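To the team - zinc ion complex, inputs and output below.
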Amino acid sequence: MNENLRIVSVSLMAPPYTTLHYRLPEWLPEDMWCAGLRVAVPLGARGTLRAGVIAACGCAPDTVPQGIELKAVLWPLEFVPLLGEEYLEMVRQLAVRQMVPPGQILGMLLPAGLRSAGVRLRVRAGGRPRTLRLRDIAKMADSERHVLASHWSAGRVEVLEPETDEAENDICHVTADPPWPVRPAARRQTEVLEYLWENGPVSRRRMLHDLGTGAQTPLLTLAERGLVHVGPLDAEQAEVCGCGIDSACHTEAFENQLFELTDAQQAALRACTDAVESDSAETRLLFGITGSGKTAVYLELARACLEKGLSVMLLAPEVALACKLYRDVQLRFPGLPAVLYHGYQSAHEREQQFLNLAAQAREGRPVLIAGTRSALFLPVASLGAVVLDEEHDASFKQDERLSYQAKEVAWFRVAQSKGALVLGSATPDVKTFHAVREGHMPGIVLSERVGGGTLPAVELVNIKDNAVKETILAPQTLTRIKETVTRGEQAVILLNRRGYAPLMYCLDCGSVARCPECEIGLTYHKGRERLVCHYCGHSVPFPSPCAKCRGVHYLPMGEGTEKLEETLSTMLPHGKKVLRLDRDSTRRPGRMEQILAAFAREESSILVGTQMLSKGHHFPSVTLAVVADGDIGLNMPDYRATERTFQLLVQAAGRAGRGERPGSVIIQTRDPAHYCWDYIRNCDYEGFFEKELEARRKRRYPPFVKLALIRLSYPMDWPQGQDRVNALASAVRASGRELGVSVLGPAPAPLPVLRGRRRFQCLLKASDWKTIRMLFHAARQGVPASSRLRLSLDLDPVNML
Ligand code: ADP
Ligand code: ZN
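Output:
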């Protein structure tokens, strides 16, 4: 036979992540090899074993490097390929877009156990079963391998997953809110608690990696004392994320979900199912005001897909909302094959889920997945629809590790299966709505609240000359909150700033307490008794002496949610507490759901919180929503500052008046003349859109150009850093001129120092992504590589800091 048919290319799922050619070994039959199969291959002179995925079989002669002797694939890691052709195509596309090898993408998308060469084979042939490591096979004589191969082909070999790594599967999280009963001398314990508090639930492995193995003893002490949980999260998971439906509220919740769709919802559903049925891939914007019943449309769409044998993904911007979608599915359609997927699961659970889904995909069985953005990378068969709820939300873009925009990946996936992408929002992304206006995607409108509820009346309160200095809330706002509470109704107060006070002045020398790593002011967290950097997590006990004058007298300035909670608690009857929803109060798994449930049961009449409380929640007794500081977002160094503010405030306003009683909204501002308030007040999305679009056209921002950021950083103490940045700057500007890309900067980033590194960024505007990638490639070639200079390209940046 043609020798080239026996050559495959394999993408390595571990460093160096390259795609290399290998010979197929003669000891296994030819027809078992195909693209997508995971295999173990030797690498380098020492033959180190790596796991990889066959990228292509039967490589053409001219693609194979000449003059070197190809090594043979050692052994397959499975009998049937984990990944189908469509999945591999997605990996290739992501690799091109990110300018990294496909192996690296696989390394990021596959759960750890599925990309490890640490598997063992159990052979059941004569006598006791034998267990072999891949290393043992590497050392075998050919004759032995032939014997093993005959067992393999006869089904007498089982692939055992890599030994379970307990440190990977143990999830650690804090079980009590600060302040914790820990002696001041027990520094290591405090360090562990602070770390877990900052990072949320993490695997023991990651914690030990970050804090050093010395953290193991204090961790176990804390676990013994019941302050920290160490172990699998899975058993509790169902309960803590609110997905487990406890029987008491089950009946009521269930009956609440039995309604028929309204005519408007029916029409919206038909438009979506038409898109699924059409024989090309389609996108739809479901533009429905808050409370218009979009969720029910998604659920019926999901059912319609499953009935046709098509899979469907319902994705939300955060874990709590994904859990809510999952629970809604279970309530409305008990027994439907649904899977919940999000980041808090253990490594082992993620592996099992990936394997199960891959198996179902091979059999062509449809599934419903409710999850967050990372669910987009799960293997599924014939995808009928992907729904992105709250499509405008910034968290659909991932910045760390693998940078991607969920909308693009979702579109790619439905395009492969000619399915439908449904984007749902009350305040769509300006780019999305522009696409609708330009005729690139049909829009479906739900313009009424279900049950005829009206949108709340919005009023502005000027706080420029607020006489009350103790709180940001103006006297008339306080009065309104008091009246609401007295009537037995509920109020939500939005303040997008967590902690007690964002600035701490030293009364002795007048300086502000700053993070030594980021030069940013530290926020006072009263309950935690610490000053905390909100950018890197660095914290110091409070009170501790001023870094400049060693004084210990501080003046807290400004107000965060923690202080607001304190201020408002005086308004409630004795024994009642204000509820607070922010990153700090929801640090422990399950806390968010507990707080939301307590508020829904009307255990308290006031809920204070950050943007978390603006999203998706439905509280029928809320009649007043207060935006304590409407200006916070407007001054951000981001071309979308006004769009973000509009979206946040309309969403927050949408929390009021969702039940039978009408609602009202108060927005406090120091700039009552700002144009965005009128649009918010009239809930006039389209008016806002026109105005914003004009501004973007004038200033050349998306959707009129493609925007990218080159991010640069180097350690503060590196003397050559500035020279390197300058060299790169000239290279970028030179290729910018050549390629017709307009280049702004590099200038210090809005956060000029972070975690001890100086940061710069360079804004690129071009007419297409390809040119931007070319520019980046050229600029990167032009400067000497150094591990100290970090350089990355962010296409369509969402975080401009
Ligand atoms: P949106 O996501 O558009 O803001 P939701 O989907 O949360 O709105 O719906 C608001 C509320 O109305 C939910 O409690 C939902 O159960 C209820 N609801 C939705 N559709 C109907 C309907 N056709 N009949 C009765 N109640 C409905
Ligand atoms: Zn910091």
